[in-house]
Amino acid sequence: MQAYTEEQRAALIERLRKIKRTGKANRFELTEMAEIALAALTKEPAAYMYRDKLHTDARFSLYPRFGNWSPEDINEYEITETRLYTAPPVAALRLPGELKIKPRSHESHVNYAEGWNDCLDETKRLNASAPAEEKK
């Protein structure tokens, strides 16, 4: 994903707010939003925080499962691992259904439905490799 300057970020936020208000976006905007969503969904943790009942402070590591703990140690000392991100991970996408094209529909309705369905297909394709939402 590309890096944004503060001005580009502010402009992007304003465009997204306008799209949310109007419900209208072009293919470029939809592609850009899909790329941002995919980058957010596949983000790896920047570090890990560990807590247990023996220490009052937390310990941090750049690697998961730092330490050589057995399952018994984890249960006995109540060791917990918290993933730390530079930004919070995005929840899994929930997509609306495809639009059905009725017989004898007006051409503009057909074009709209085809565009909508193409957009859904592309969003699903771009997010096919995204991790599933973690259960807590």
**Distance between the terminal alpha carbons, to the nearest Å?**
28 Å
Could you tell me the mean pLDDT? 79
Biggest sheet, strands in spatial order? 2-1-3
Order of helices and strands: HHEEHEH
> In percent, how helical is the residue content?
40-55%
Q: What is the count of helical runs?
A: 4
The outline comes out as elongated
For the biggest sheet, the summary is:
3 strands, antiparallel
Q: Report the sheet-strand fraction.
A: 5-15%
Q: Low-confidence spans: pLDDT under 50, at least 5 residues?
A: none
| Total beta-strand segments | 3
**Estimated structural class:** mainly alpha
Rg of Cα set: 22 Å
Identify the quaternary structure here: single chain
Provide tags for this entry.
single chain, three-stranded antiparallel beta sheet, mainly alpha, 10% strand, 136 residues
What does this 3D model show about the protein?
- The protein is built from four helices and three strands; from the N terminus they run ααββαβα.
- With 136 residues, it is mainly alpha-helical.
- The protein has a domain of 43 residues.
- A three-stranded antiparallel sheet has the order 2-1-3, with no helix packed on it.
- A hairpin with a 7-residue loop joins strand 1 and strand 2.
- Helix 2 runs parallel beside helix 4.
- The longest helix has 20 residues.
- It is elongated, with a radius of gyration of 22 Å.
- 0% of the residues are buried.
